[in-house]
Design a protein that fits this description.
By secondary structure, the chain is mainly α. It contains 19 helices and 6 strands.
Length: 460
């Protein structure tokens, strides 16, 4: 057997790389290491700003040079960290050594011993993960999520008045409009969006078991919790004062559960649109050069929505696992979270890929108004609900003596196909007021949509 050159194992890094590459800026190993460098650098600045342990506050140029270690972090640093970790066998220690090397280069080796001072690796890691996840959600995932909602909003407005036969339990039911049905998904997705936007990103910086023990023994006079709080909040994170060696990851569980919830609503959207395509309510717009089937040249397969379904399921599997496992840590620390958190990017990557497929898919469909009208016109029996409800109102108002209107309409319509002529004759013979009779005689399946169109305005 011939030997292949090295290949990527995940399709997110291969076939689908273009769709998810922005996530790699944050949720890759390199993105995590850049964040670790940032945490180490900012901790050095906090310590020296307070003139702790004989240090002197750095001037503006020195601080800028330190922070440039983060903004200029690139391939050279990635390679150097790989070399260091090959020796240290510890990823965070490798980052500490990298920072120490850079301090020497910058002429700041006199503060080298303050690098990683009183910090456990998890002090660095929890803040780094919080920063990278926060940035990935804010800068990559949420914009794509909002883009899907915007595409749905365009379709909801475009199709707000397009009456269609609804199907409850898969059976013909009271009509609605395509725009209102799309608006339902927008409303659901926007609720979750607000929850995600308002979610917390917490961090701790309190030492080996969350007690500030090393800090206090090194300098008892300092209010270390206050310093920690200032430091963590200065990074743009919320401060968690009560932890073990690790930050408890509850904020992560909450976030991943909410993203999984969004994934499941999007999965429902994808299956509904797939079904509308299947029954012909949506036509797929042919894409130049595309092939639907390797043997059936007429086909246009709804692959955008099928791919979205699969990727949403994969994303949920990973994010649900993270949410379930990260909230448990044996006693003061175990290392199970280290492995699981390395898959955060994979969970978000499959969700991002699904969002990309849905957004593109929404731009490749159009509504078939002729078929919608034909389907409605073939199901006049759906007006049975309207007729029996009007009769009940007439009985209540004293304008009819009909007994059990529901049973009357059930006998007429259940399991049967009724024509317009059948219903007109039935209504004309009803014992109800003239105004009510006129309303029913004017009613057709395509006008029996209630307030479906104006309900779309509740999105504004």
């Amino acid at each position: 057997m011939s030997s292949l050159p090295p290949q990527v194992l995940s399709p997110l890094d291969g076939r689908y790389r273009a769709a998810v590459t922005e996530l790699g800026e944050h949720l890759s190993e390199a993105g995590l290491n850049r964040a670790r460098v940032r945490v180490e650098v900012e901790w050095l600045i906090v310590l020296t700003d307070r003139n702790l342990f004989g240090s002197v506050a750095l001037d503006a140029a020195q601080k800028a040079a330190l922070r440039a270690l983060v903004t200029d972090f690139g391939q050279a640093e990635i390679d150097e960290l790989a070399e260091l970790e090959a020796t240290t066998r510890h990823d965070v220690k490798a980052v500490e050594y990298l920072v120490r090397r850079r301090l020497a280069t910058l002429g700041l080796d006199h503060i080298a011993e303050l690098t990683h001072f009183a910090a456990t690796s998890e002090d660095i890691n929890n803040l780094s993960y919080a920063l990278t996840v926060q940035q990935a959600v804010a800068e990559v995932w949420l914009p794509k999520y909002r883009g899907v909602i915007a595409a749905l909003r365009t379709r909801a407005e475009e199709f707000r008045a397009d009456a269609m036969l609804a199907r409850t339990h898969g059976q013909p039911a009271t009509p609605t409009t395509m725009g209102k049905e799309i608006a339902v998904f927008i409303y659901r997705l926007e609720r979750i969006q607000k929850q995600i936007e308002n979610g917390e990103y917490l961090g701790k910086f309190s030492g080996a078991t969350g007690t500030f023990a090393a800090h206090v023994v090194a300098e008892p006079s300092v209010d270390w919790p206050a310093v920690s709080k200032q430091f963590v909040e200065g990074l743009g994170l919320g401060w968690n004062p009560l932890t073990t060696q690790i930050e408890s990851h509850d904020w992560q569980a909450e976030l991943y559960s909410r993203v999984s919830h969004a994934n499941r609503v999007l999965h429902n959207l994808a299956t509904d649109i797939w079904t509308y395509i299947s029954v012909g309510y949506f036509r797929q717009i042919p894409q130049v050069g595309a092939t639907g089937s390797s043997t059936m040249p007429h086909k246009i397969n709804p692959i955008r929505f099928e791919n979205a379904e699969a990727n949403l399921e994969l994303s949920c599997a990973i994010l649900d696992s993270l949410a379930a496992t990260l909230v448990t840590s044996r006693l003061q620390r175990d290392l199970t979270d280290s492995t699981t958190q390395r898959n955060i990017g994979v969970g978000f990557g499959h969700s991002l890929l699904a969002l990309d497929n849905i957004e593109r898919g929404l731009g490749e469909i159009d509504i078939d108004r002729v078929l919608l009208a034909s389907d409605l016109d073939s199901n006049w029996e759906i007006l049975g609900e309207a007729i029996q409800t009007v009769i009940r109102a007439e009985v209540s108002a004293g304008r009819s003596s009909i007994a059990d209107p529901y049973a009357l309409l059930k006998d007429l319509t259940r399991g049967k196909r009724i024509t317009q002529a059948d219903l007109v004759a039935f209504v004309q013979g009803l014992d109800i007021g003239d105004a009510a009779k006129a309303r029913l005689l004017a009613l057709t399946p395509d006008t029996y949509v209630g307030l479906a169109s104006p309900l779309v305005d509740y999105l504004r």
